[in-house]
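My main concern about presentation is that the manuscript never shows what a single data entry looks like. In essence, backbone conformation is discretised, so a fold becomes a row of integers matching the chain in length. An entry of this sort, consisting of the sequence and the corresponding backbone structure tokens, reads as follows:
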Amino acid sequence: MAKIKSVRGMNDIPPEQALYWRYAEEIISSTFSSYGYQEIRFPIVESTELFHRSNQASDMVSKEMYTFEDKGGDSLSLRPEGTASCVRACIENNLLRVDTPRLWYNGPMFRYERPQKGRSRQFHQSSVEVFGIEGPEIDAEIIKLSSRLWKRLGIEDNVYLEINSIGNESTRLRYTEDLLKYFQPLKDQLDEDILKKLNDNPLRVLDSKSERIQSLLKAAPKISDYLDEDSEAHFKKLMTILDSLGISYDVNPNLVRGLDYYNKTVFEWKTDNLGAQDTICAGGRYDNLIEELGAKPCPAIGFSIGMERLMLLIKETIDNKYLQNQSIDCFFVCFGDKSILQAMMYAEQIRDRIPSLNLKVNLGSESAGSQFKKADKSGARLALILGDSELDDGLVSCKDLREKSEQETMDLESLITKIDNIFIKEKK
């Protein structure tokens, strides 16, 4: 019988990889919380209409969504992104009546894309969303928040920031007209995909990865020349604040973002370490989306981190100190049923006293040599040994596997003191 494999583009995260995820997730959640952002959670399945209303012209809606009809005949979709779901949840739970809610969330998203490095069909995002603040100060705050996050993750030297303003609807209409005029005599040089983008959503041409298209865009009109007065003032003030906060950035006039709901500020954090999939975090303003989804107008801004790409970058740049701290600290080597039972009882007492300790009890009947090999492979610093002599005397033997020092035998209280002195200081 053939083995059942995971669905293409939907990948497992085995334990050795999950350590990196835990490392990042813990820092992300604590960093978001340190800025006063609150966690929100919402379903992975939404009404298909939600994404059609928020991103009518995007490839995400037309090509990439996992959509199905449930037993009641309703059209449902696995969420392809989080912002629309977050806005829906805020409207439904009356959160927009709260004074400028600042929220964060993480979890899986789903798009039917061609799987490649840093791009999967089930992928994960960690995101922030802020509602009710019009000024560029909040734009600067979430950019600064993300900058601090990279520093805490140890990747600040491997990322750079690009920003732009795409103005209001009037800006984009006027700019789009001239962009289409520019490309009109060049259509014979364009492939079918680019022609479709020009027809459906011309701004999407700007973020094309094609070197040939990027070359053509060098002489194309720039959206910065079409900004309305308010958007231009907003963007200038944002740059002033970023300068004051010491955040380096490049203005990329072709940066527009792929989803339809953005306006004014857009930004991306990029890296040169991951090839073509170079964006690890992206966001911007979406001041009109709340009204599109049926609520009163409300300014909003947010960003999303692509966790798979972040993991690739973290693995390339951080040392293994965190991973060492997540390995087994102590490994109980046991001989026989009585020994195993006693070890389990001791282990619970040790865990009560030192909750942060990673302690594993061997529950098999292997030889001493085999158990010590398992202890060493687990990364344990100390092997705790319970044989017949230890059981008879109510003691535990302890061997330091790293220092290769002489084995010591002691009572449980002395053992707890020794463990505390070794590990708790290290973990701090």
In short: The chain has 16 helices and 16 strands. The first strand starts at residue 38 and ends at 39. The mean pLDDT is 89. The radius of gyration is 27 Å.
